[in-house]
Specification:
217 residues; alpha/beta; TIM Barrel; globular
Length: 217
Amino acid sequence: MAEQRLALLGPHGLDAAGAETLLPALDAACAAGDVAAVILRLAGADERSLTALVKRASAITQAREAALVIACSDFTGDLVQVAARGGADGLHLDKPRDPASDLGDLRGRLRDGRILGAGGFESKHIAMEAGEAGVDYLMFGGLYPDGVAPEPETVRARAGWWAEIFECPCVAVAATEAEVPDLVATGSEFIGLESAIWLAGSEGVARVQALLGDVAG
C-alpha cells in the first residue's frame, strides 16, 4: 500500500469570527501529523473579507508545508482570484452539476500548478466524469452543510472502488475517529478528518497518524 497522508477539513461556513478559534487549532493539528492538505469551507462574504481570511490560513499552512484548498459555495464572485490573492494552493468544488463544464472551466483558469479538487458525488458516473475533467483529487465523504454525515459504509465502498481502479488520488473522509481504520484499509491516498476529530485538540490527529505510520522526517 502506498504511503497515506492526512487532509484536514474545516467546518462548513467558516467566517472571520470562527477563524479565531479554528486557526490556532489548525496549527496544532498540522504539527501533530503528516498533513498534506487543509480544505476550508468558507462562508460567503465579500472578496476582500474572504481574501483576508485565506491569507491568515495560508500563513499557517505554508509554515506547516500543507496545501491550502478553499471552497465557498455561497460566493458569487471569482473564487480563483480569492485563492490567488490569498495564497491558497487551490479550490474545491462540491457537487459539480456538469463536471466537464464546471470543473473544466476552473481547470483552465487555475494557474501556477494550483490544485483542483471535487467531492459530493451522488453517483459513480458523476465521479468518473469529474476525474476525466482533470481534477487533482476526488473526495468521498465529508459532512453535508446541514451537519449530517453520509453513511460510513457508502463512503468506504466508494473510496475503495475508486482507489482500486483509478489513478487520480482520492480523499476518504472520516466524520468520526472510529471510521478511520476502515478508510485506511481502502488504500485511499489521503484520509480526510472532519473538524470534530481535530478542532478540540490535536490528540485525535496524533492517534490517526499512528495508524498511518510515523510522520515523515
